[in-house]
């Protein structure tokens, strides 16, 4: 049996130049995309119970575009006017540029890192340690975010502005795939919330990142494909290496 069908637990790419679409074309694969999780904003009424004063902070740390969307959403729901003096610290340049959706970019104080939170803190944020930072996050977030800030003695408030919930995948109950691809522990949680009797059998599990790998193993699943690695820094590269060997030999040496 050759690998022919893959399900990626993420939204479908917005353009035709996706590495996944190129992977499908090169290897004659059918690749479907389906988000296993959705993000819901915390209502303003619920947020008020946390007694967090957004305007008491002089800077915001953004780790994603979703964090930006929900920061400005909650400010609007609370009828707050964010002052022009607010400073923004972003995990990457692409996240920083996304701020243009809400503010006049060139007139604000915006700083960004190279997509590594530890470097953002140690190379940029520590230089502004006198600021009072707000960190918008999901209810499920990387524990190293507050840990790294604490380690560097940064004064911050963690604001849970959105939550991750499992998608309804009931329509997939009778659909079989050769490989399931996961990018977060929440995706694994969603799999079992939708299909509590799921048995892996011959289905291959692929995942990206150490936290997701840990969740796969904790769930009692067999992890067949893991990225990133020195040989495969991307998920699509890891998939291609695995598929080529499997389709040629009928198995893969682990």
List keywords for this structure.
21% strand; 5-stranded parallel β-sheet; 2 domains; 11 strands; 9 helices; elongated; alpha/beta; single chain; Rossmann fold; 254 residues; 6-stranded mixed β-sheet
Structural summary, described in words:
It is a single chain. With 254 residues, the chain is α/β, with parallel strands linked by helices. The chain folds into 2 domains: 40-164, 3-Layer(aba) Sandwich (Rossmann fold), CATH 3.40.50; 176-182 and 194-249, no CATH class. Helix content is 32%, strand content 21%. The protein has 9 helices and 11 strands. It has helices spanning 19-27, 44-48, 65-77, 93-98, 117-123, 144-151, 185-194, 210-218, 235-249; strands spanning 5-8, 30-33, 37-41, 59-62, 87-90, 109-112, 133-138, 156-166, 179-182, 204-208, 225-227. The strands form 2 sheets. The chain has a 6-stranded mixed sheet with strand order 3-8-7-4-5-6. The two termini are 18 Å apart. The mean pLDDT is 94.
Sheet of most strands: 6 strands, mixed
Content-based structural category: alpha/beta
Number of domains as seen in the coordinates: 2
CATH topology of the largest domain: Rossmann fold
H and E string: EHEEHEHEHEHEHEEHEHEH
Oligomer state equals single chain
Radius of gyration: 21 Å
- Please identify the top-level CATH class of the largest domain: Alpha Beta
End-to-end distance, in Å? 18 Å
């Amino acid at each position: 049996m050759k690998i022919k069908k893959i399900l990626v637990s993420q939204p479908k790419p917005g353009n035709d130049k996706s590495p996944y679409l190129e992977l499908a074309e090169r290897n004659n694969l059918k690749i479907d995309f389906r988000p296993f999780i959705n993000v819901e904003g915390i209502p303003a009424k619920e947020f008020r119970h946390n007694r967090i004063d957004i305007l008491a902070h002089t800077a915001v740390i953004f780790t994603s575009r979703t964090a930006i969307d929900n920061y400005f959403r909650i400010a609007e729901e609370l009828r707050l006017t964010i002052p022009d003096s607010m400073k923004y610290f972003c995990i990457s340049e692409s996240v920083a540029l996304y701020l243009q959706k809400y503010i006049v970019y060139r007139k604000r104080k915006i700083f960004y890192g190279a997509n590594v939170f530890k470097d953002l803190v140690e190379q940029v944020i520590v230089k502004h340690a006198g600021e009072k930072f707000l960190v918008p996050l999901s209810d499920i977030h990387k524990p190293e975010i507050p840990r790294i800030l604490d380690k560097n003695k940064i004064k911050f408030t963690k604001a849970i502005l959105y939550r991750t919930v499992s998608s309804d995948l009931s329509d997939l109950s009778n659909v079989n795939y050769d490989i399931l691809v996961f990018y977060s522990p929440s995706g694994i949680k969603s799999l079992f919330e939708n299909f509590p009797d799921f048995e892996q059998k011959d289905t291959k599990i692929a995942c990206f990142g150490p936290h997701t790998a840990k969740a796969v193993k904790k769930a009692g699943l067999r992890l067949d494909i893991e990225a990133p690695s020195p040989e495969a820094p991307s998920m699509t590269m890891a998939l291609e290496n695995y598929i080529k060997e499997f389709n040629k030999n009928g198995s893969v040496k682990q």
